[in-house]
Amino acid sequence: MEFFEVVEARASVRKLEAVEIPEEHLAKILDAGRRAPSGMNIQPLQYIVVRDRAMLRKLARVQEFIPQASVLVAITADPSASKYWLEDAAAAAENMLLAVAALGYASTWVEGTLLRQEAWAKEQLGVPDHLRLIIFLPIGKPAAPPVQAAKKPLKDLVHRERFGNRSR
Predict the structure, then answer these.
(1) 24 burial via Cβ count (<10 Å: 0-12, 13-18, 19+)
(2) Cα 26 to chain center, whole Å?
(3) Residue 167 — very low, low, confident or very high, per pLDDT cuts 50/70/90?
(4) Nearest to residue 104, comparing CAs of 35, 162, 31, 19?
(5) What is the assigned CATH class of domain 3-156?
(6) Segments making up each domain of the chain, as ranges
(7) pTM score above 0.85
(8) Nearest to 73 by CA among 143, 142, 135, 141
(9) What is the pLDDT of residue 60?
(10) Euclidean distance between CA atoms 159 and 161, whole angstroms
(11) Distance separating alpha carbons of residues 139 and 68, to the nearest angstrom
(12) Separation of alpha carbons 66 and 127, rounded Å
């Protein structure tokens, strides 16, 4: 899929079907995260790949649809290594979500419900205390064709030269 087609097609999908995701596809997804911009190129992120069905079922405590996924990528960050760790995690997650869509899979960004249970989830995945467990990306085949949520018209979002000068 061409880049702008991927951007237009990518959607948050919570109804997944587990399929075999080849290691080469998973490597492309992870590499997309690794290649994301990182403040001062510090690269404070590490990734945990979870394929184990029992662990995916356990992680349903964070979001109940997680066991539908074929694989889950957990993004961890070291706040002591970089003051830009949160931005770095966001950039990596978006790159990976675009790679997921480009390869014909689906996912959604799980953060809010994860952060409310971060200590528990860190314990389950063996994440060291000094790291943050910030984002889950459950990946699988979309159960139905993905539909991107409605977006505001560009003309309502763009200002030219100064705020209030609307785009034409």
Answers:
(1) exposed
(2) 13
(3) low
(4) 19
(5) alpha beta
(6) 3-156
(7) yes
(8) 135
(9) 97
(10) 7
(11) 9
(12) 19
Confidence band, pLDDT 50/70/90 cuts, at residue 5? very high
Q: How confident is the model at residue 45 (pLDDT cuts 50, 70, 90)?
A: very high
Residues in the chain: 168
Given a cut of 90, whether residue 166 has pLDDT beyond it is no
Q: What pairs with residue 17 in β-bridges?
A: 141
**Token pair belonging to 125:** 């995945």
pLDDT value of position 1: 77
pLDDT confidence of residue 31: 98
Query: Longest Cα pair distance anywhere in the chain, in angstroms?
Result: 54
| Alpha-carbon dihedral angle through residues 105, 27, 138, 109, given to the nearest 10 degrees | -90
CA distances from 62 to 2, 31, 118, 157 (A): 33, 25, 9, 33
